[in-house]
Amino acid sequence: MEFIDDDFLLSCEPARRLYHHFAATEPILDYHSHLAPADIASDRRFHDLCEIWLEGDHYKWRAMRANGIAERFCTGDAPPFEKFSAWARSVPFTLRNPLYHWTHLELKRYLDLDVLLDENSASKVWSHANEVLQSGDLSARGILRKFNVRVLCTIDDPSDDLRYHRAIEESEKSFRVLPTFRPDQALSFAEPKEFNSWLAQLEQASNIDISFFKDFLSALKQRHDFFHTNGCRLSDHGLKRCYSATCSETQAAAVFDKARGGKSPFEEESEQLSSYLMLFFGRLDSEKGWTKQLHIGAARNVNTRRLRELGPDKGFDSIGDWNQTEALCSFLDKLDQEHSLPKTIVYNSNPADNYAFATAIGSFQEGPVAGKIQLGSAWWFLDQKEAIESQLNALSNTGLLSRFIGMLTDSRSFMSFPRHEYFRRILCNLIGRDVENGALPDDEKLLGALVRNVCFHNAAKYLGLEQVGEATEKHGLSAQSQRI
User: Fold this and answer.
1) Is the dihedral of CA 364, 401, 278, 317 positive or negative?
2) What's the CA gap between 61 and 53, in Å, rounded?
3) Rounded distance between C-alpha atoms, residue 243 and residue 328, angstroms
4) CA–CA separation, 9 vs 388, rounded Å?
5) Is pLDDT at 470 greater than 90 in this prediction?
6) What does the pLDDT read at residue 478?
């Protein structure tokens, strides 16, 4: 029996109708991705399945380590097929881990393979996949077209020259790749050597000599303006926790001078400067009508030995457990008091924060923007069925699911676009079960509009990218108004 069939994860008839009639055909607006724009600009073609599937995938590496696989088969120098074989041996042990679902969705959608991956099927899958990768349409751009991606937003440092984005914009008509302003390095002054090295890049990019704090702010604003002229409409911050300390410009300048001089600020000083800069970035975003993203609460690189051996972003991270809500509300409130609060998406990494964050953002909603402050989609360790449902339930119970801007991949892998299908099936199943239980009306037009909007159209409108949805809007709902 086929595992990934047409009704995968759809447990009732209302769910199946909602998915197949409304969700399945919607295009993708992936507004938060770590894909490299250079790969898209060059239309990178992948040599083998290991390169496209295992390269940089810390989800798989964590599972392989838990299964007793040596590091050389994860991040090390083992030959590609040996790495893939080690992963294939691990897949049967991922039952009930979302990796089992993702793996077989990806094999089905990219390679049209229904086989269950394990040690016995590894050679067959490897040979078939590599043949398709070389002769099929699975280049970087081909993949975006295959999955009907209309807009992809990448994560970009303020010092980036965005030349790859411009090259894509000039040569590609079927989708857009837009930058996202991610100034995390601007808050790295606790490590002065790293901070000053980055400042040299910022100086070169902005053509501003950064000797004083006012120069630093001018350079950041110049880059913010530059990003805007190159299509950027979102910023993003990866924060351990939100910063909300009181800090004057004089105090901020003193801390900056200390770091610029090569001395590490005290923790309290770092908190002050970080708080000042986050308000500064918030004002810039508000002035331009951007959307700010706050990814809050991850405990990164908790294994010191592995960090020293392998570097960051290798899968040695955890959900953090801090009191987040008071500082988050304080940050939003300070900007709101100035009428400078931009559209904001708040992502939590701790499921315990779902209701706290959902109710906090409800205090800062304001027209004319519907859903101005968003509870971000289930992120990182939470982008799986149970946690996606928990996020959707918290949002539904405290706010408006109908205004939610939906899913994103947050991925470094070109094999991750079925995450949107995964989310859509879970969304439709959640709503469909409510219909079956009598908790929602048996009205396909009403619920179909909700599904279509959450899958694509809310995000397009929220981000000011309505034109990317025009091709699908013409179909409307008139032909799909039958009752469930």
Assistant:
1) positive
2) 11
3) 8
4) 13
5) no
6) 36
pLDDT at 456 over 50: yes
Q: What is the C-alpha to C-alpha distance for residues 40 and 318, in angstroms, rounded to an integer?
A: 30
Q: What does 143-166 look like in DSSP terms, one character per residue?
A: HHHHTTEEEEEE-B-TT---HHHH
* Side chain identity at residue 435, one-letter code: V
State mean pLDDT over 320-329: 94
Residue keyed to tokens 């679902």: 101
Nearest 5 degrees, angle CA 400-CA 404-CA 405? 165
Categorize the per-residue pLDDT at 136 as very low, low, confident or very high, splitting at 50, 70 and 90: confident
| pLDDT 10s digits, 162-178 | 999 999 999 999 999 99
Secondary structure class of 196 (helix, strand, coil): helix
Rg (CA), the chain: 23
Residue 466: per-residue pLDDT: 82
Instruction: Domains for the chain: give ranges and CATH numbers.
Output: 46-135 (1.10.2020.10), 140-480 (3.20.20.140)
Q: How far is CA 126 from CA 19, 50, 120, 123, in A?
A: 31, 9, 11, 5
- 336 SS3 class: helix
Strand partners, 28: 149
State residue 484's pLDDT score. 37
Which helix or strand (DSSP H or E) is residue 270 part of? helix 267-288
| 3-state percent helix, strand, coil for the chain, nearest multiple of 5 | 55, 10, 35
Secondary structure letter of residue 357 according to DSSP: H
Q: Considering Cα of 355, then 361, then 366, then 369, what sign does the dihedral take? A: negative
Residue found by looking up tokens 């590599």 in the block: 130
What single string gives the DSSP state of each residue in 409-455? ---S-TT-THHHHHHHHHHHHHHHHHHHTTSS-S-HHHHHHHHHIII
